[in-house]
Amino acid sequence: MVSRTVDRVVNSIVAQSNEWIKFPTTKHELMEAKRIWQSMYKFPTAIWSN
Description:
The chain has 50 residues and is mainly α. The chain has 2 helices and no strands. The protein has a domain at 22-50.
């Protein structure tokens, strides 16, 4: 029962992931995401940029 529920939830999330999950595509977007993350969560190395 639990595994079927988890499977349904995961499949629903994956089906919607293109709408919900956005990754930075430019250096500027990456740096902005990093700045926002750091200011909100005080976790300085959660997002790396090369």
